[in-house]
Every structure is written in C-alpha cells, then in structure tokens.
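User: Structure tokens for this complex, please. No commentary.
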Amino acid sequence: MNEKKNNVTLEEYENEFSYKKSKTNLNIEFNRIAFIFFIFLIISTIYSIQLLHLGSLKKISETNPIISKKNYRADIVDRNGNYLVKTVSSIDIGINPIEVIDKKKLLINLQLIFPKKNYIDISSKLKKNKYFYLEKKISTNNYEKIMSLGDKSIKSEEKLTRIYPQKNLFSHIIGQIDDNNKGISGIEKSFDKQLKEINKPLKLTVDTDIQFLIREELIKFQPIFKNIGSTAILMDVNNGEILSMVSLPDFNLNERKTITDLNYINRATKGVYELGSVFKTFTIAAGIDAGLIKPETEFLDLEKKLICGKNTITEYDNKILSDLTAEEILIKSGNVGSVRIGQMLEIKGLKSFLEKIGVLNKIDFDIEEVGQPIPFKWGKCKLATASFGHGITTTPLQLAKAYGIITNGGFEINPTLIKDKKENNKKRIIKKNTSDALNLILRKIVVEGTAKLANVNGYEVGGKTGTANKSVKGGYSKKKINTFSSIFPTSNPKFALVVLMEETQISSDYIYEYRDGSKFKLKGSPRNTAAWTSVEVAGKIIEKIGPILATKYIEN
Amino acid sequence: MKKIVFATILILILVTSFIKNATKEIEDKIYTVSENIRPLKLELGDVLLEYNYLSSPEKLTQYQFQYFEKKLIKIDITKIKKINELNSKLKVSDFIEKINNE
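Assistant:
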C-alpha cells in the first residue's frame, strides 16, 4: 500500500491590529443593528413599492390602445357601428404523418368523425410523410371528438378568420387578406398596419343601408340595359365622406376566391374612363370662375361643324340652335359652344382649373386600387376636344370629387372612406358665385334638359349627363359609357351621386315613367344615351335612398 | 439636520408604501372587474355580429316579402309632415319645404 504524504507548512501570520477609541459618543453596536434594520426596511419597502408598481404597469399595458399581436386584426364597422368585418378565431386540424403510430386505426377513427371525407386521398397524404391539413375551421363538436382520440399526430392550430356579414356589399372597399394575416387589397391592404395595432374597430364613412339600396338598383338594371358593369358613388359634398361606393360585378368576401377576371375591377376608383359631356360642366365653371363668361353670356352663330386636324367636331343633336347662352350650352349639351368657351380659356386656363378640381392627376385615396387618368399632350385640338369631354379621362371617384367642389361653394374636399379623419380647415378654391351659378344650371338640366328622368319630387336634383363611346386601341368602339353626375338638393348641395354604366344597350321592354307630373309612360329606350340609362337608374336610386338621407343626414 | 433629513426620507418612504398598499385592494378589484368584462365583450361582439347579420338590409328585405308583402307601403317624402312645439302650441309643417319657383 502506498502511503500518502502530506506536507504541511506553517507560516507565521502577522496582523497589524491597533485599537483606537472612538472619539464620538455614539454606541457603535446599537448603530450597527439600527442600520441593518433600516437598510432591511428600505429594501423591503422599495421592493414592495416596485412590486406593486410593476403590477400596475402590466395592467396598463393590457389596456393600452396600441397593441401588437401576431394573430390579431381589428374589426371594421360602418358609420353606424354595424359590423362590416369581424375577426373570429377558428381552429384548423392538421396531421403530421411522421408521428402516426397506427395509420389504419387513425383512418378508422377519422372516418367516424368525418364520414364524408375522401380517405383515399388522406391515405396517400399519410404515405407522403408531409404535414397536411385535415379540416380547416373545424366545428366545436368535431374538435372535441378529434382531440379526444388522443393521437399525437393530430395537431390543432388557432387561426384568425375574417367574417363578412354583408357578403358582397363592400367587397371592393374592404378587400381581402391572405393566410398570413396580411391585407392584399382594399382597406385591408392600405390599413394593414393600423388594423394590427388598434384595439378598437376601424370606422368607415359608408352606410350599410344606403349601400344595399344603391347596389340593389344597379343589379336590377343590369339585365334591363345589359351592361357589363356599373358603379355608383354617393359622397357628402361638404366633407368628402363617401356614404356608398358600389362597383359591379362584385364578389363574396367570405368565399375567398382568387379573382383574375378584369371585369371585377373597382370601377369607382380604378376604372379610367372618357366620360363625355359631364366635362362640359368644368369648362363652363372654369369660364365663369375666370370671369370670362356669365351664365347669360351669348354665343351667336355657332357653327354646326368644327374641324381641327383629324377631328371633326359636330353637335350630337342637330336641333341645337346656333345662338346660345353659356347656360344653354350646358343645358343643351352643346359641343361647339363648349369648344368656344374652352378656346376663350386657352390651354393654361382650362388645364389649371381641371388640375385644381382634381380630375387630371392620380387621386390620393384610402385604398390603393386607384386609376391614373391617361396623360396627354395639350395642344390646340386637344383643348377643343377636352372642352366637351372627348380625349380626356378620369375616374368616377374624381368626377364625384370635382362635382362636389364645384357645387359646395367652391371648397376643396378629399374623398375619404375613413370616419373621423382629421382634415385641415376648409380652403376655397373656386369662387362662391361660380358655385351658385353652376348649381342653378345643373338644376335646370334636370328640370328642362337631358336629365328629366332624375327629377325626383322633393329632392331638388341637379346634374349633367355624359354619353361617350368606349375607347379602344387606336380609336373608339360603338360601345357606350353612360354617366350621370348629380348633386342634391341644389339650393344647398349636400350629396353628389355619380352613376356610370359600362357597355349599355337599349331596352325594348323597359317602361319609363315621366317625372313631369304627366304620368306619361314610354315603353323601350329611344336611344342608348345616359339620359335613358344612367339618369333613370340615378332617379330610382335617389327615390330609394332619399328618405334615409333626408331623415338621417340632413340637419333641419 | 442630518437626523431630520433622515427621518423625513424614512417617513416619506413609509407613507408611500402605505398608500401604495392601500391602492392594491382597489387595483385588485379593478383587475377582477376587467377580467369579468373581457368574456362579456367577446360575447357582445358575437351577439352584435349575429344582430348585424339578422338585421342586415338583405335579411330585412327578405322578411318584408315574407311577412309584410302588401302591408308596408312607401310614403312620398313630400307628404310627410313635421310637428314642432312652440309656446305649448303644435305647429304642423312639411318635412321637406317646397322649392320656390317650381
């Protein structure tokens, strides 16, 4: 046995210790104990305060309006607080084949719970050893059943689901989200970040009841005039709030389909059209605003035909007189008279007015699906054609905005879909007398001009019709874009309503009821113009929504 | 002087601690109430969703055809009257004032 040897070395430790008597009269031992107790008291008190403080902080963070959760998305409501979109959580059931112990047993059990499923397909998926979803948005009953199987391969995933109780009604406005809670169109896209952060619903300016009634009318007239699509915008001219924006065809948001058909575009904001005579209102307004003309200014010996380069400008109706006042040019929708006013304004005058009312450039709006008016080079002939709405494009939304500005006293407005948006003070960009004059002329167009079918009793409707041929590559087709841009009541404008119908056809069966008190009825459309299509639709819309607007939105 | 500062700090700490502890009970109550409100809020949301769906214009139109096909009639807005009370007297006027010169 080996013996361990430990070597111990002892060294002398020298400690210099010297005792000095304290000069103070304090009892050192008592102070030490008191000090320890004092420190202990402070620490425990601070800890106590800190603990409570942390607790209250935690609660504040829970009630803080700014929250950020991965699986969260705020609801969207209309101006009356009705749900347009509601987030609910749902559970998806997936299977991880690698973790399956007995495939046969699992399939039998699943067949008992989901008897209608294709088990040949499920069996082949199990063989592939790749995770797959068995059932999405499972019912509570089936969830309990499947989880009671206790199979480790069955996985449950909590997912966010958006419910759209109004189905198609706001499809173009609201848009859609993808599977990763990311907005891909409409408000869902443009307000993606806010919807993930705010803990109260996002309030829109739209009214569900009005949206429904307008959509119903557009749908009703679709088979009558056989149009491929249509749009209507109802806007408050005093603040730009959009009460309704319908674009047909639309789609059911709950079905979450991938739409590739271009006919499903949002015509109200994305559709860029040549709108025809509705632009004449701008030419007349620009002339009055610049002080070049008055409503009673006479234009004598107006030609029946004008030639400018390759363009031949004629009157739509040969019965239009050669001597007209500025007011009559708009009421009778004279092309040549509008060209004359445009020429008085010159390029600079007309262009700057159109830019001011926001029809020439792309509009800044709450959704990203916005069309860009087609840019063009101004010239002598372009000025002539643009004066009566030919060769110049814009979107129906911008048309509503422009009519709003012209009729609201000349104040600048920005169309919006978001309620309670903070706007700067009102800025007048057009003279008040221009606005007043235009309101009177627009009213006369409905009373005695081309829009008599929209003269709904009690609402003082004013407006301008526009019939244009649809532009195609290198020219124009015979297909029509019929528009009616209206405002009401003209004595104190509150609402602008734009109705646009694309590729309308005349109806031989539809019965028109005249609104002049004669109770005269006419069967079949005499012409494929706005006066016989979109004006009739606008009249029916105003008749339906008028009582709601009068009782709910007009302050007496 | 040192003793006074010392004593003041000590008193302040004790008072703060005492107040904080006194609020704890209230905070607990608030927490309990807010926790009880949370499921109610969820329930309210679901009920509102159901209400919005059942009272949506589409459903109401359906009910109108189903139950009141001929009972509900549309009234011309120009025929609706407005009743105003002025000095204990009732004044009846048109809901929409007639337009001049038309």
